[in-house]
């Protein structure tokens, strides 16, 4: 109990893939050389492969929010009407961006822990036939809920609007058929399923989205998708790239390709299901039980507790970092992540630690109850009993 390894159990940054860390050590490379162009081209090619799309994929040295901003500033004009779905802290970010760039936003709001339903999107589009875009989070990690992106996309596809998805924590935790479902703009970030540090943002753009870029009149400079596309076609970034992160990304993408994105998603979904079952077995209440995502599980703190107590106890007792609630949910929920480089051994430890923390703070549980629930999910999915 005296040695405590720090463990990231948050929905971003997530645990780092060891070979990616090793690859990052070779970052004493100049970004305007053929050596780096080879790395850059390979990363963009592999990104398209793991995302399952032939659409253009661009890369920015920024947080995922940079790619979100690029989607707004490059594809829309001041006064454009847009349908903005807001069901948590990150949905509110779309609302704020729409306001910052002067869009005429019709906000479809859902309470934290709930989601915006596809029928509300369809109704909003019918009531606003001049809408140019629909914005949503695939996975709202502030609450642990996930939107029905496929059904929303079907509604948007019947209109002239484009569908813009923040999939920063949706990629690798839920199916996202970019071309099959008609996902026009998909945003991703490096510190989630790609298992490297924060600092890279990704943006896939459909041909329909590119047509919007021809009429946009909003200002942009650093986040210029036309300039970035021209540079990418030449094997370079428009601006000085994060060479170390791109080297690390290359290693992570190789791992994801070998494993298969479908298995990354299945891994996250199994961990999420096991966590939900463990929480319920321990007498805790899930925060988003009706539309749970697989990037993170949000759990309500016991009655009368501040969830910060659980967060602090994970850190002080076990050196582990889990996430508190965000916005109005701070102090009310705690969140345990499942995306990227997490496995069941991690989850066994997390739930065992949670049992100790709950008991130590006056919420008695029978040790092993939650762990047994996780073991059961694992055994059903992975254990093949050998017969004599």
Provide tags for this entry:
388 residues; alpha/beta; Aspartate Aminotransferase, domain 1; Aspartate Aminotransferase, domain 2; 44% helix
Detailed description of the structure:
With 388 residues, this protein is α/β, with parallel strands linked by helices. It has two domains: 7-13 and 260-382, Alpha-Beta Complex (Aspartate Aminotransferase, domain 1), CATH 3.90.1150; 18-259, Aspartate Aminotransferase, domain 2. Helix content is 44%, strand content 15%. The protein has 14 helices and 14 strands. It has helices at residues 18-24, 34-51, 64-75, 89-100, 118-127, 149-157, 178-181, 207-213, 225-233, 243-259, 261-281, 307-318, 344-360, 369-382; strands at 7-8, 56-61, 81-86, 104-109, 133-137, 139-140, 145-146, 162-166, 185-189, 200-205, 296-300, 320-321, 323-324, 333-337. A seven-stranded mixed β-sheet has the order 2-10-9-8-5-3-4, sandwiched between helices. The chain has a three-stranded antiparallel β-sheet with strand order 11-14-13, covered by helices on one side. The protein has a two-stranded parallel sheet with strand order 1-12. The longest helix is centred in the last third of the chain and has 21 residues, at 261-281. It is globular. The chain starts with 6 loop residues before the first strand and ends in a 6-residue tail after the last helix.
């Amino acid at each position: 109990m005296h040695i405590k390894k720090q463990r990231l159990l948050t929905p971003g940054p997530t645990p780092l893939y060891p070979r990616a860390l090793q690859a990052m050590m070779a970052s004493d490379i100049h970004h305007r050389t053929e050596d780096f162009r080879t790395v850059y081209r390979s990363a963009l090619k592999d990104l398209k492969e793991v995302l399952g799309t032939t659409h253009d994929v661009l890369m920015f040295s920024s947080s995922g929010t940079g790619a979100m901003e690029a989607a707004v500033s490059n594809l829309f004009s001041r006064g454009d009407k847009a349908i903005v779905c807001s069901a948590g802290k990150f949905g509110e970010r779309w609302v704020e961006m729409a306001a910052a760039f002067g869009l005429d936003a019709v906000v479809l709001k859902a309470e934290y822990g709930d989601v915006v339903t596809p029928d509300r999107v369809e109704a909003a589009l019918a009531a606003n036939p001049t809408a140019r875009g629909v914005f949503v989070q695939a996975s709202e990690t502030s609450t642990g809920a996930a939107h029905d992106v496929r059904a929303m996309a079907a509604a948007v596809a019947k209109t002239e609007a484009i569908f813009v998805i923040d999939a920063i924590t949706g990629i690798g935790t839920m199916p996202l058929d970019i071309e099959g479902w008609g996902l026009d703009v998909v945003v991703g970030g490096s510190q989630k399923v790609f298992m490297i540090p924060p600092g890279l943002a990704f943006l896939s753009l459909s041909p329909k989205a590119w047509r919007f870029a021809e009429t946009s009149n909003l200002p942009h400079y650093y986040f210029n998708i036309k300039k970035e596309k021209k540079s990418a076609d030449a094997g370079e970034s428009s601006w000085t790239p994060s060479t170390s992160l791109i080297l690390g990304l290359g290693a992570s993408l190789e791992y994801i390709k070998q494993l298969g994105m479908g298995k990354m998603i299945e891994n996250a979904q199994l961990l999420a299901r096991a966590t939900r079952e463990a929480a319920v077995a321990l007498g805790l209440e899930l925060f988003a039980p009706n539309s749970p995502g697989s990037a993170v599980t949000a759990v309500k703190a016991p009655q009368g507790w501040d969830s910060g107590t659980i967060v602090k106890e994970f850190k002080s007792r076990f050196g582990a970092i889990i996430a508190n609630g965000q916005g109005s949910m701070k102090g009310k929920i705690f969140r345990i992540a499942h995306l990227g480089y997490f496995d069941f051994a991690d989850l066994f430890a997390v739930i065992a630690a949670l049992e100790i923390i709950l008991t130590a703070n006056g919420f008695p549980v029978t040790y092993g109850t939650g762990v047994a629930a996780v073991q059961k999910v694992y055994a059903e999915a992975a254990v093949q009993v050998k017969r004599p």
